[in-house]
Amino acid sequence: MAPAQCAHLQRVFHFGKGKSEGNKAMKDLLGGKGANLAEMASIGLSVPPGFTVSTEACQQYQAAGCALPSGLWGEILDGLRWVEEDMGASLGDPQRPLLLSVRSGAAVSMPGMMDTVLNLGLNDEVAAGLAAKSGDRFAYDSYRRFLDMFGNVVMDIPHALFEEKLEAMKAARGLKNDTDLTATDLKELVGQYKDVYVEAKGEQFPSDPKRQLELAVLAVFDSWDSPRAKKYRSINQITGLRGTAVNVQCMVFGNMGNTSGTGVLFTRNPSTGEKKLYGEFLVNAQGEDVVAGIRTPEDLDAMRDHMPEAYEELVENCKILESHYKDMMDIEFTVQENRLWMLQCRAGKRTGKGAVKIAVDMVSEGLVERRTAIKMVEPGHLDQLLHPQFENPSAYKDQVIATGLPASPGAAVGQIVFTAEDAEAWHAQGKSAILVRTETSPEDVGGMHAAVGILTARGGMTSHAAVVARGWGKCCVSGCSSIRVIDVEKVVMIGDKVLHEGDWLSLNGSTGEVVLGKQPLSPPALSGDLGTFMSWVDGVRQLKVMANADTPEDALAARNNGAEGIGLCRTEHMFFASDERIKAVRQMIMAPTLELRQKALDRLLPYQRSDFEGIFRAMDGLPVTIRLLDPPLHEFLPEGNIEDIVHELCSETGSNQEDALARIEKLSEVNPMLGFRGCRLGISYPELTEMQARAIFEAAIAMTNQGVQVFPEIMVPLVETPQELGHQVTLIRQIANKVFSNMGKTIDYKVGTMIEIPRAALVADEIAEQAEFFSFGTNDLTQMTFGYSRDDVGKFLPIYLAQGILQHDPFEVLDQRGVGELVKFATERGRKTRPNLKVGICGEHGGEPSSVAFFAKTGLDYVSCSPFRVPIARLAAAQVVV
C-alpha cells in the first residue's frame, strides 16, 4: 500500500537525560507518557533515550485508512539513529545489540487499555550476541518474552497459547517459578514459541528488527480503536482525543539477575492518601510482570534491602517529581545491575479518600494553594466517598474466609460471577455482582465496571485490576493466593469451601478481607479531611446547591450533605406513603361530583400538612420549593388487568363497576407525558391546587409558631402559557390570604414555575410577569426538545452512542447545544422582565458535573439534585470558579 500524503509537521520528538524536544505541557501531541518522559529527561532524571511518534501521526494514520503517512517511516528511522548514537548500539547488530520498548500513550491515562511490546529487536543472531555479552539465561528469557508479547500484541495470537508451553515445561521439570527455568530450558522454549507463531499465522516469525519495529508501531496505532480501548473511553466519557502516541525507547533490563529488578510505585498511598511511598518491586523481572499481575510482587521495602543505593536515589527522585508536578505521582522504574532508570511518571490514579487527603495534606505542606487543591479532587472521587462502608467489621471476623491485598478500598456485597460478560448481564438485571477471576485483563473492563467489586487470585497492588478499580472507586481485593478459580465449572475454592456462581460474598477493599455472605453496610459521613476540603469548596463557589427531597428523612440527609435548601419537593410522592393516603387519592380521582372530590381532598389535607411540617422543620432557615401535583391521575390507580383494577377501586371507593370503568376510560391517555397532568390538573380541578396550597401555608405558619424559620416557594408544573400560570397564581394567593386571615399571621413566600416545555422557554419574558422564580425541569425539557420518550429511548440510544450520533446520554449529561440554549434563552428573557428573577434547575442534570459547570457559567442561582449528589454538585460549582 502506498504511503498516504499529508502536510509535513514535526511528528517525531527525541528525549534523553538532560535533553528533550518536548515537555509536560505537550500532552495533546505527545500523549501523557511521552510528555512526561520528555519532562523527566529535561529535569535531569535518568531516562532511557528514545523518541515519541505524535498523536497527530496517529490521526493521519487513521484518516488514511490505516496507512503510514508519507515520510513518517523515514522520520522514525531518523529517531532510531539518534537513539543508536546516544547508546553506542545498533538495532539488529549482534555485536552491539540495541533492544527497544514500544509503548502507547494517549493524552488521557487509560491503564492497560492499549499495547506495549518489550525487547523488540531480537532474532536468533541478536539473541546469540546478547548471550555472549550478558549470559544465556538473560538473553533467552528476553527472547521468549518478546516472542510472546509480539505474537500477542502485534499479531493477535492468544497469550494462552504461549502460556501453555511455559506451564507445560515447568510441570515437566517439576518447577514452580519461571525464574527456576535454566538457560537451556528457555532456549528450548524459544523454539516452541516460534512453532506457536507458525501454527497460528502460517508464516515464520519476522526476524528483521526494522520490520518488527514497523509492525509494532502499526499495532500501537491500531490499539487505539481496539474494543477494550473504546469501551474504556465510553465508560469514562473520554472524547475528543486525536489518538495515541507511540513511545520508542531503549530497553533497560530488570531481568539481569539479582542486582536488577523492576517496580511500580505511587509517591503517596493512592488508597488512603498517606504520605508514604506505596508500591511493589520484583527482583530479576521486567515491568510487565508487575502491572500485568503475572507474578505477585514484594512490597517496595524489599528493594531497600536488595539494592539500598538505587532505593535512596528513587526516594530522592520521588521528592523531585512531587515538587515539580505538585501532585501525587505514579512511577514505573527499572534497576539494571544496580543502576536506576525512570521509565514513566504520571499523576497517579487515586481513590476518593486518597484524593481528599492528598489535597488537604499538600495544602498543609505548602506544596499547593487551596484553589489548586480544589482542582485535585474530581467530582467522581466524592461519589466514591458517599458510598457505604461495612457497619461493623469486627462483627464478621469469624466469616472471613480469605485475605488478599487491599487494592481498592470500600465495601462491596454481591453475588459471585466468573466472567466479565456475566457481570454485565447481571448488572443489566439489577443484580449486584462480585467478579471473581484468577487475574483480570483489559478485555474484562466492561465486566469490571458493571461489578460492585472485584476479587483476583493473582496480581499485586499495582496490577491491572487494582489500578482500574481504584480509578473508578470500585472495591477490589487482589493477589488472594488462597483462592482457586475453576472457570469451566464456575466455582471458586477457598480453603475447604467451594463457592458457586450466585453465592453471596462481601469484600473489604480497605483490609483485603473476603467475607462469606451478605454483610450489613452503613452510610458514610462528611467529616475530617473531607469536611475541611468541602469548607474550601464552599468558600469559593457562587452557585448554590439545593436538593430534591420528598420526605423529612430525605430533607435531613440533604442538609447533612450541605444542601442550602430544597429545590424540588414532589408532593405526589407523599401520596404513596401509606395505604390510607393512596385510598384517599383514588377516592378523589373516582369522585363523580365536586362534593365527593372535596371530601376525599379533606382526608388528604392533614397528611400533606404533616409532611410539609416535617420538611420545614428539617430545613429550618432554608428555602423549600414545593411542586404542585404533576403526574397524570392514572398513575395513582392500581396496576394489573382491568377486572382487578375495577374490583379494587370499587371496594376502596364505593363506586359501582359501570362508573369505575367509565372513569378509567376517561383517564386513559395515548401519550400521558404530554397529556392531562401538571397545571392542567390544577386548572381543571382548582380544588386540588387549593388543598395543596392550604396544606403548605398552614404547615408553614404552624412551624413559624414553633420558632422555625420557613421560606416556602410554590412551583406550578408544566406551564406553557402565561395565562395558565396566572390562573394558578391567583388561586394560590387567594388561599394564602384566607389561611393568613384564619391563623392571624402572615409569612413571606414565592410562587414560580417549572420551565419544562420548550414553548415556555421561548415565552419566558411573558411568564416572568407572573413567576417570581424559574426552575428548569431538564428531564422533561430534554424529552420534549429531543422528542425522545425516557421510557422508550433505551431501544435506540445505545446504537446512537455506539455509532457516535450522540456523544452522551442526554438524560444524564445536559445537551448544551440544544436544551442548554433554551435554558440560556429563557434565563435572559425572564430576567429582562424581572431582573431579580431567581433561576435554578431541578432535573437529574443538577448533580452531573459538566452540566453543573454549564449552569454556573450561564448565571443560574442554584442547582438541585438528589441528596447524595449534593457534595458532588458543590465541588463541580467550585471548580468552575477556580
Automatic annotation (TrEMBL):
Cofactor: Mg(2+)
Protein's UniProt name: Pyruvate, phosphate dikinase
InterPro entries: ATP_grasp_subdomain_1, PEP-util_enz_mobile_dom, PEP_util_AS, PEP_util_C, PEP_util_CS, Phosphohistidine_dom_sf, PPDK_AMP/ATP-bd, Pyruvate_phosphate_dikinase
Biological process per Gene Ontology, one example term: photosynthesis
Family per record: Belongs to the PEP-utilizing enzyme family.
Gene name tied to this protein: ppdk-1P2
Documented EC number(s): 2.7.9.1
Domain PEP-utilising enzyme C-terminal as annotated: residue spans: 527-880
GO cellular component, one term: cytoplasm
Subcellular location: Cytoplasm
UniProt-annotated binding residues for substrate: 570, 627, 756, 777-780
Keyword Nucleus attributed: no
GO molecular function, one term: ATP binding
Catalysed reactions, as listed in the record: pyruvate + phosphate + ATP = phosphoenolpyruvate + AMP + diphosphate + H(+)
Function according to Swiss-Prot or TrEMBL: Formation of phosphoenolpyruvate, which is the primary acceptor of CO(2) in C4 and some Crassulacean acid metabolism plants.
Pfam families: PEP-utilizers (PF00391), PEP-utilizers_C (PF02896), PPDK_N (PF01326)
Protein source organism: Chandrasekharania keralensis
